[in-house]
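In response to the reviewer comment on reproducibility (Comment 2.3), we provide here a single inverse folding case reported in full, input and output, so that an independent group could reproduce the run without further information from us. The structure tokens appear first.
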């Protein structure tokens, strides 16, 4: 589901500035993506199927961060 969200935010940025080039768009998206820790990191989680277990994220992220549209507009030069 990352592709539709990034595409939509890119389209919003292009609507604001029609002359943004690819390099500037990529840089804006990188700056706007904040690597936030998950709220459940280091938490005890109850699941009725597996009972109680300890969940830890270990700081490993599969992507580049958490992209938000408002931060993308602020990061745009």
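Designed residues, in position order:
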């Amino acid at each position: 589901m990352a592709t539709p969200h990034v595409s939509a935010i890119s389209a919003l940025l292009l609507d604001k500035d029609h002359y943004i080039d690819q390099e500037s768009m990529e840089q804006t998206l990188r700056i706007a993506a904040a690597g936030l820790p998950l709220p459940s990191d280091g938490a005890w989680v109850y699941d009725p199927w597996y009972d109680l277990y300890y969940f830890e994220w270990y700081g490993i992220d599969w992507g580049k961060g958490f992209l938000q549209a408002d931060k993308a507009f602020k990061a745009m030069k």
